[in-house]
């Protein structure tokens, strides 16, 4: 790397499966290495890695929690001397915001991963007011916060009082090169194949999808890929609704795109999304979407009648299932690549990072 390259530290809690981990790993690997010198700092250990980390410079801090990692993270920043430090998810953004007081000449960025107001509402735990206060303080100290959607930007303004000039919208890219499927098997004589990919948490709304499917009278199978705190509750819901023979659970797979390609429709039940990577990837392979209307990036991806439908309630969701339409996989794929191809989003990040450093 040239000495005058822009040095960036991307900081992650772990390298386990997740949208934030995917995007930060993607940026570390794909930013132009003639301009940027990128290092990935991982708070956790090498025990569980869900992504290809070949040819990446990674520093593992081997700490079990972000709180315990703060001294090590400070030492790492002192040693690496970056121009930009970028974190993601709330508890890590909080730590980075507080650390930024020590390094006034470094640009500290946070990447929001969710819409805070709605995520808090659907959280199963009690609200931690001390955490909320510290998070608001830390986020205001960051130089910039990267938002994945217009709704997220508005949430940062409303919930944290962040000035708009300190907010930047950069959507998530299609990080892999997906092969578009050649056929769409919608036919009343077939068994319809539905799929949902995502963390099994309250905000993802798996249970309301199951409630709709319990009223769907045509033959179908439903694959759920993911793991999380609501798994047992969702399993119980499947049994209660009599869907056990129709629903398949896959905790983790490196072949998500294969399952997406083999499905007829991606179903999203979320009450809120940051920017739904799995939904985006479903469109990328040519599999259309039926999604509940929810704050976040869903409405910036789904175009009614082009790559799927957004519905307002369970009744409309069921109506769409009962009247499934044919979608041309190639057109579904083109609808998202024209806006979220990795070259487009990488260019947005590179331009933004250069602008930050040039203003110094």
TrEMBL record:
The segment(s) forming the Glycosyltransferase subfamily 4-like N-terminal domain are: 18-175
Q: What sequence ranges are listed for the domain Glycosyl transferase family?
A: 193-324
Q: What class of enzyme is it?
A: transferase
Enzyme Commission no: 2.4.-.-
Question: What Pfam families does UniProt report for this protein, alphabetically?
Answer: Glyco_transf_4, Glycos_transf_1
Which superkingdom? Bacteria
* UniProt KW keywords: Glycosyltransferase, Transferase
MF-aspect GO terms:
glycosyltransferase activity
Q: Which InterPro entries match?
A: Glyco_trans_1 (IPR001296), Glyco_trans_4-like_N (IPR028098)
Gene3D superfamilies associated with the record: Glycogen Phosphorylase B
Which protein is depicted?
Glycosyltransferase
Q: Which organism is it from?
A: Sediminicola luteus
